[in-house]
Protein: mRNA export factor GLE1
Organism: Helopsaltes ochotensis
Amino acid sequence: AGSKLREVFDKINNLLSGKPVQTEGQTVSVTQHPQGLQFVCYKLAEKFVRHGEGEVSFHHDSAFPIAVVLSGIWELHPRVGDIFLAHLHKKCPYSVPFYPARKEGTSMEEYQRMLGYEVHDSKVEEQDHFLKRMSGMIRLYAAIIQLRWPYGNKQGAHPHGLSYGWRWLAQMLNLEPLADVTAMLLLDFLEVCGNALMKQYGIQFWKTMFFIQKSYIPRIEAVTSSGQMGCLSRLKNFVQKCLQAEEIPLPKGILTPSFWRT
């Protein structure tokens, strides 16, 4: 509910503003310790990324309420946004976007961690689980860049707005595609903020969609084995339908004005 989200936002904002906040039966304030504010900024940013790789990866719609709170907090407390990006880029290098290359002397285990895989006791997480986490983080990022906290002053620009999404898409399409990962990330990104990019960039956006269909999807196909076609097929269908309809559908779960009256 919108009212519940406001409560969450106010609590976080009060904490970061140095006001006393009630939690688990006690009152806490960042002023209680010289590094209190830095610690809270760090842990809060880390928690938002965890929401992406956890909650959003399983419930795609949850990207929007989480993103709108972070967007508002980022506007009032830019440090949280900077640290959020640092955590996000480390956990999901594809959010830069960047495909790390294996350097000489780097162990396979270390390299897999650089690619975003979780490695515990030399055991690497399964590909499906890895892709799900990356998907959740990209969806959260794609939601953040298009949303603003509705009760802010709206005087300044969005602290990390759609221009960053446009840049991400352009840079992504300049990279050589990877099997599995590239098709999934592009589909996630376009499903979540394609509609917002279409409204903002118009004809330039449609040129990009045409490029994806005619030039980039064949390049993904060239590196994709027959067992990895699932996500690529979904991307192809999505792009084709959008080009035919000359419309990108609104993402599922987007927060409508009526949501804020709940």
